[in-house]
Each structure stands twice: as structure tokens, then as C-alpha cells.
């Protein structure tokens, strides 16, 4: 009896949704007959609408992915994109800050935003029936933010405090310096928050100009994931975003942001002997999102692996380097990475150690592992790395917000979305030979960028590190 009542209540709950399900309600044991696809539509003004509709989802994430982040700034207005993210929720011409907050809270929705080097994103997660209201709010904050002087001054102080907090996070500092030295005096090398002097001086004019120059339909993708049908989101997009400017003006900043940056072999060191650890990032020029070596780069990164001696499985973390580092007590942790952008990337390793007298050994054997990738990768370690990579990528798509992020990022950077199945097949096709070909092309005897912070007195000079990029080992 109880199970019948539960089933009846469930059916009633599904029937009340804003977007009705197909006539024949799928039972729990019925397999899905066709894979769920990502659909895209381009409006007359150039705005792309992309969705992945899950008919039985109770919630949806909708958001706007914009092809503009700190890379679209100049040295003078660096920090503007992040500043705008803060001001977006401080009131529009039709909603005060209090009204905006109350409206979101009354729906039980989540509204958020973030800025990266290449993208700015505004998104909301809500029940399906509240999606039209969320799109209305997103359209309002993107097109009608008041940018009041009082709000600007208030957020200026907030961002300055945020900047101070970021400076206390060593990993953030190291990677900001890594970008700054690898892409010196170029848009991609600037920080997302911008220098403090810029934060103090950014004006309302600069903020409104950034919107005018970058928030245009040709550089924006409205994404929906979950229970919102594609046709419904297209209808909402035409209603709320049809007045968006069609094309970005080709300003000097725009042209610079679209120019492929030059990778510069160099290093930056901030020695602080009061710190108990040395924190070192080393990278070669990586690959873009659309590069043919994108997946071989990821597999190579997974072969190098990660390590954390605080983990219970520290002696058994799979990669050869982690075993060697653990057995010789060389590091507290290390993390290999492959960071991609629209036209370039950084492929490398981040090392943390309190064994400061062993820094040279740690760096040497990390780079020795890199050169090994050029000539002696086994199928067994390739298969292990591929399995880890597939699991990591597929698990990261759990939830409507994660799905929306994947769709938005792919479409705004490459123009299309590769499905999880396509990605899985592409990873499966990577061989040990592909990894070695990538390493021979991108790692062997290549310039490196080095960023080091902390107790780094024993870190050898750049020439010694660069020399390890082409050593022959038996």
C-alpha cells in the first residue's frame, strides 16, 4: 500500500511541472531509447542558444557564457571584467539590489557568476517552472545594470579585500606569476582581479565601455541544461535578448585578445625564507582546446600524475613519479596540469616541498619523467591514465550546472560541443605512440616557464632547469 501511495505521489509531482513530460511516463526500469543530444540555435542577431534537455529532470541551470574575460582587457583597465561580475547583482533599472536578492530567495534559486581569463559567466539554477523568471533576471543584469557610483565604491573595497585574500593563497600566486612570465606583456599574462592600482582607479565609464565592447550577441551563448526544453529557451532568448548588439567593435583590445600569444621561456622567483615550503610551477607551452593534441596532452598529464603524502594511498598513487617521490621523501605534493585556452595553453607540474635541501633533486626527477614520455611510454600506463581521465571527465559532468558549464565552455571556445560519448571514444583512441609523439613535439628540448615562491634558495638557475629538458637517460 505504501509503495502504491509513493508511486501515485511521484506521478502527481511530475505532472505539476512547468514543462510536461512525454505522454508515456518512463518507468524506473525502462532504458532511454536514444542518447540525449545538445541542440543549438542561432538567433538573427547572432546569439547562440544551446541546451541539453533531460525530460525527467526537476531542475534546470540556465546561464550566459560570454567570450570575454581578463584577456579582453588592456593594461589600463585590467580587472574590469571581474569588477563587473561584482556589480551585476547590485541593482538594475527595474530592480534594486534588495528586490533582486528577494526575488531569487523567494524562488529558492541560486544565482552566481565567475570570471576567468577568457570567459565571463552568469548563471542560475532553479526549478523548471522558474526558468522564465531566471532568464528575465539574467537579461536584466546583463543589459540594464545601473552601475551606480555608490555601488562601485562599495565593491571597490570588497574587491581589494578579495585581492588580499588571494595573495595569501600560495597556489594562486604561483599560477598567476606563471602566466605573467610565460605570456609577458600580453593579455593572457594578466591577472583576473587586476593590479590594486587599477582596482582603485576603475571608473564607471570603463565598466560601461567594457559591456558595450564585449557583451555582444556574436560572443555570447545562452545555455540551458536540465528540464528546460530547447524550444522554450529559444523563445525566452528571442523575448529577452533580441536587442543585444550584433557584433563587437574591433577595438585595439579586441584585436589583441584574438592574437595568439607568444610563449616566453623565463622564470620569476619570490624568495621568502619565512615560509616552510618551496612552491614551484614549471610549464612548457601547451595546447588549445581545439588542438589535435588536446587529448594526448591530457593523457600525458595523467601519466605524470598527482601525489599528496597526506593521503592514505600516497605510496600507491599509480604514476612512476609519485612512487619515486614518495620513496625518497622529495615532496609534500605535486600536481600535473594541462591548462588550455582558445589558441594556446600551459602543460606542466606544480611542486610543493618542505625538504628544501632536495629541491634540485625534485625538479630534476620531475623533468626526467617528462623526457621519459618522449621515448618509453608503455601501453599499460597509457591505459591506466586513460581510465583515470575518462572517469574524471565524466564524473565532472554530474549535475545540471556542471553540464551547462561544459556546454557553454565548449561552444564559446570551439563553436561546437563534443558529447561525453564522443570524448570517451576519442580518449580510447589515444595510444602510447600518440603520447610519445606529443611529448617529442611539445616537451623535448622546449623552453620552460618557471614560477617559484617560498624557501627556494636551493632551486637551481634557469639554464640548469632548461638543460634538463633534453637530457638522455639510459
From TrEMBL:
One of its GO terms (cellular component) is mitochondrial matrix. Residues 201-389 form the Peptidase M16 C-terminal domain. One of its GO terms (molecular function) is metal ion binding. Its EC number is 3.4.24.64. It catalyses: Release of N-terminal transit peptides from precursor proteins imported into the mitochondrion, typically with Arg in position P2. Its main location: mitochondrion. Residues 49-196 form the Peptidase M16 N-terminal domain. Its cofactor is Zn(2+). Coiled coil: none annotated. One of its GO terms (biological process) is protein processing involved in protein targeting to mitochondrion. The keyword Translocase does not apply. Keywords: Hydrolase, Metal-binding, Metalloprotease, Mitochondrion, Protease, Transit peptide, Zinc. The keyword Hydrolase applies. It is found in: Mitochondrion. Catalytic subunit of the essential mitochondrial processing protease (MPP), which cleaves the mitochondrial sequence off newly imported precursors proteins. Preferentially, cleaves after an arginine at position P2. Belongs to the peptidase M16 family. PANTHER family: GH01077P, METALLOPROTEASE. This is mitochondrial processing peptidase. It comes from Coniella lustricola. The lineage of its organism: Eukaryota, Fungi, Dikarya, Ascomycota, Pezizomycotina.
Amino acid at each position: 500500500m505504501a509503495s502504491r501511495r509513493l508511486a501515485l505521489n511521484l506521478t502527481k509531482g511530475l505532472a505539476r511541472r512547468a514543462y510536461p513530460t512525454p505522454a508515456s511516463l518512463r518507468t524506473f526500469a525502462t532504458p532511454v531509447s536514444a542518447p540525449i543530444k545538445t541542440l543549438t540555435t542561432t538567433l538573427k542577431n547572432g546569439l547562440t542558444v544551446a541546451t541539453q534537455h533531460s525530460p525527467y529532470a526537476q531542475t534546470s541551470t540556465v546561464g550566459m557564457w560570454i567570450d570575454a574575460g581578463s584577456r579582453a582587457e588592456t593594461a589600463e583597465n585590467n580587472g574590469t571584467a571581474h569588477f563587473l561580475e561584482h556589480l551585476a547583482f547590485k541593482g538594475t533599472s527595474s530592480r534594486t539590489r534588495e528586490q533582486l536578492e528577494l526575488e531569487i530567495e523567494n524562488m529558492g534559486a541560486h544565482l552566481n557568476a565567475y570570471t576567468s581569463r577568457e570567459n565571463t559567466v552568469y548563471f542560475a539554477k532553479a526549478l523548471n517552472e522558474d526558468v522564465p523568471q531566471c532568464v528575465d533576471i539574467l537579461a536584466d543584469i546583463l543589459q540594464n545594470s545601473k552601475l551606480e557610483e555608490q555601488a562601485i565604491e562599495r565593491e571597490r573595497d570588497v574587491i581589494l579585500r578579495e585581492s588580499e585574500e588571494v595573495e595569501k593563497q600560495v597556489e594562486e600566486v604561483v599560477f598567476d606569476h606563471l602566466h605573467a612570465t610565460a605570456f609577458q606583456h600580453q593579455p593572457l599574462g594578466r591577472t583576473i582581479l587586476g593590479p590594486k592600482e587599477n582596482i582603485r582607479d576603475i571608473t564607471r565609464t570603463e565598466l560601461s565601455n567594457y559591456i558595450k565592447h564585449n557583451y555582444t550577441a556574436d560572443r555570447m551563448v545562452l545555455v540551458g541544461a536540465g528540464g528546460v526544453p530547447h524550444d522554450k529557451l529559444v523563445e525566452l532568448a528571442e523575448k529577452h535578448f533580441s536587442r543585444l548588439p550584433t557584433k563587437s567593435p574591433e577595438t585595439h583590445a579586441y584585436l589583441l585578445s584574438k592574437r595568439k600569444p607568444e610563449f616566453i621561456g623565463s622564470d620569476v622567483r619570490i624568495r621568502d625564507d619565512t615560509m616552510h615550503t618551496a612552491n614551484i610551477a614549471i610549464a612548457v607551452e601547451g595546447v588549445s582546446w581545439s588542438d589535435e593534441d588536446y587529448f594526448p596532452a591530457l593523457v600525458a598529464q595523467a601519466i605524470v600524475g598527482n601525489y599528496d603524502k597526506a593521503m592514505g594511498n600516497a605510496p600507491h598513487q599509480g604514476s612512476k613519479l609519485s612512487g619515486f617521490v614518495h620513496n625518497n621523501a622529495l615532496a609534500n605534493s605535486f600536481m600535473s596540469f594541462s591548462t588550455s585556452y582558445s589558441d594556446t595553453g600551459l602543460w606542466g607540474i606544480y611542486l610543493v616541498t618542505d625538504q628544501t635541501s632536495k629541491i634540485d633533486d625534485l625538479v630534476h626527477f620531475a623533468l626526467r619523467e617528462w623526457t621519459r614520455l618522449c621515448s618509453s611510454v608503455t601501453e599499460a600506463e597509457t591505459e591506466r591514465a586513460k581510465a583515470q581521465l575518462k572517469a574524471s571527465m565524466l564524473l565532472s559532468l554530474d549535475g545540471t550546472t556542471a553540464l551547462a558549464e561544459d556546454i557553454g565552455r565548449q561552444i564559446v571556445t570551439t563553436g561546437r560541443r563534443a558529447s561525453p560519448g564522443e570524448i570517451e571514444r576519442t580518449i580510447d583512441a589515444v595510444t602510447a605512440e600518440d603520447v610519445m609523439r606529443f611529448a617529442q613535439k611539445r616537451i623535448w628540448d622546449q623552453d620552460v616557464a618557471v614560477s617559484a615562491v617560498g624557501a627556494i634558495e636551493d632551486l637551481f638557475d634557469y639554464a640548469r632547469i632548461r638543460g634538463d629538458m633534453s637530457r638522455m637517460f639510459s
